[in-house]
Amino acid sequence: MKRLIAGEIMTLMVKRKTPFGYFLTNGTEEVLLHKSEANETLAVDDEATVFLYHDHDGRLCATMKMPKITNNRYDWVEVVDVVPKLGVFVDIGISKDVLVSIDDLPSLRSLWPQRGDQLYCSLKTDKRGRLLAKLADDETMKQIAVKAPESAFNQNIRGRVYRVIKVGAFLISDVGYLGFVHESQWRREPRLGEAVEGRIIAVKEDGTVNVSLLPRKHESIDEDAAAIYAYLESRGGAMPYHDKSDPDDIQARFHMSKAAFKRALGRLMKEGKVYQENGWTYKKE
Length: 285
Description:
This protein is 16% helix and 38% strand. With 285 residues, it is an alpha+beta fold. It has 4 domains: 9-63, CATH 2.40.50.140; 75-136, CATH 2.40.50.140; 145-212, CATH 2.40.50.140; 217-283, Winged helix-like DNA-binding domain superfamily/Winged helix DNA-binding domain (Arc Repressor Mutant, subunit A). Helix 2 (217-234) packs across helix 4.
């Protein structure tokens, strides 16, 4: 007879009823199915298909609510809480959220998932028997991936980050392409579980893709010009930045290169929205 293990879906028999629920058995062990976790009325000797997990006191218990993930099944689950000293909790579809341990998260806190992000996980138990969510590894992601055709080059792509490393981030797209974003291809480092949008800049022989999160040049000018103009307005229409400003100062303030800053500023000047004078840029009234 298979042992009762947290993270498993099992069919057990009702051994006895109590005012607060049912005790189920596999023939040798018992587990409580609280009446709040039963979706139907059961009688002694009835069979019940349940999911086994640990309650808030660490006791093994059962529910008839089926989770999105198990020890043997992966799926996307949503991050519902972030606890700095523990990790992040994900909603697996039952009454108790499950922890993704700090040991399995990036060392940089800024790269941790935030509430609303999604992670591709299954379940596991640690050495103390605690039920935890387990992040999918590269091999698991390859099993659900779709090879990108050569025609995907330069197409827009939407996806979610499933792994971050020192020099980049790995994502899987909405249609299943596996992609890699090198650190040179973003303005801000994406976090684990974050949904991102970019474009495909290379399709490799194995069907994976390289992705850029940087906008195309014409899109970049629009975004950069809007950012510069918004900053100018926030300062009452004048700012101490112009086309001869130091590149490091521009990068620190606007998160863009000097070349991008000059292109965007040139556009604003051509449109008659700004002018420069004595090392300052002013908004035209």
